[in-house]
Amino acid sequence: MDAQTGNMEDEFNAMAPSTVEVVMGEVKKRLGSALSIACAVDGSQMSDRAMAVGLSLFNNRRGDKFTVIHISDATKTYLSKHLLPPHLKNYYIDMAHGARVTAEWLCREKEEGRSTCECLTRLADKRGVELLIMGSWGRKGEKLDVLGTVSDFSLRQSHCSICIVRSTGSSIGGMAGGSGGGAGVPAGIVSARPAKYLFATDGSHAAHLAFCFLVTYLYRPTDSIYVVMVTSSDGTEEAKTVDMYKDYMSKHKINGAGYVKCIDRMTMTVPEGIVEAVTQYGCDVLVVGISGYGRKKLGSVSTDISNRASCTTIIVKDSREIVRNRYTAAGSLSLATEMQVTPKTPQEDVI
User: Fold this and answer.
1) Pick from 66, 68, 142, 308: most CB atoms within 10 A?
2) Which domains does the chain have, with CATH numbers?
């Protein structure tokens, strides 16, 4: 690039709005003012925790929609009564009512030939869910270095953004009451404690999209956002990107700060650096965007973070990018078949 061309680009960039401003307009145009939130439940303690997080993110004033989704399996005849759909419905709807949220109960029997994971993601996609919340593990128990089958599959295959809730993370939606498994007294009021978000960026469009999603739909005036960019370089160029976010937050009176975290690639990976920053800055929730979408359905960094993070993690997806890639890989006919909305069957219970 010659000097004249470089000067022209500098002049153009000075006149053009920031990338974050441009993406913010894109997000608001595509998603609208309200958010469609769904929480997948199975009667486990992690489901209770996921519900608490989901209810804390719900905003009634802007007209959000909250749906509780359960995929039942009639072949599991050994399940206790309190884990069956009728009891779960009462338990989770009461939990939402205690948080002053009107929730829709959506229960569907697992389809023959499909896994619980597939049924859940298909149902969420067909219902237009924009943020699907679930526990990192279900009734089988939690492992800290991996995800459960359902959460891992949903993270990779769903069109919507995913919130993975872990028992080891600081709660952004602590509930009063409730003992897990739907067996105890329904939980009560959602905690209004301010949340600390760690937003990890790599400067990509996917990262800008995640930041705009966070600011528009999750952030509250009492919350704070810490922007972090992890790099193995000296951080000079990365600082420019972080400053762009800081300028945006300052302009729009968003509480927060921005940092460049330099690491030694010989001793630490980027995902490890991001996870370490969560503890370093005392954050409750980690937010990242998918970058490098490909055959694995999820960028390698996003995959690694999802497994390593011990806190609640929100992976923001660009649904248009996902559909575009699936269209390219599968062709228009198969994609149209997959995305068609099937009529409600007697197995589906919507209240």
Assistant:
1) 68
2) 28-191+341-351 (3.40.50.620), 194-317 (3.40.50.620)
